[in-house]
Amino acid sequence: MYIEAVKLHNFRNYSQLELTLDERLNFFVGENAQGKTNLLEALFFAATGRSFRTRNDEELIRWGQDSCEVAVRVVHKRGAEKLHLLCRQNPKQKLYSSNGLQLPRADYLGRLYPVLFTPEDLAIVKGAPQQRRKFFDEQISKIYPIYEIELKRFSRVLRQRNRLLKLRQEKSLGSPELESWNEQLAVLGARIMQRRLFALRRLSLLSRLAHRRLTGGEETLVLQYQSAVPLREGAGEDELQSGILAVLREQARREARLGQTLVGPHRDDVRLLINGKSAHLYASQGQQRTLVLALKLAEIEFIRGESGEFPLLLLDDVFSELDGKRRKLLVESIEGRVQTMLTATAAERFAFFRRSGKLFTITRGEVFPSESHL
Ligand SMILES: Nc1ncnc2c1ncn2[C@@H]1O[C@H](COP(=O)(O)OP(=O)(O)O)[C@@H](O)[C@H]1O
Ligand SMILES: [Mg+2]
Question: Which CATH superfamily is domain 1-113+309-374 in?
Answer without folding.
Answer: P-loop containing nucleotide triphosphate hydrolases (3.40.50.300)
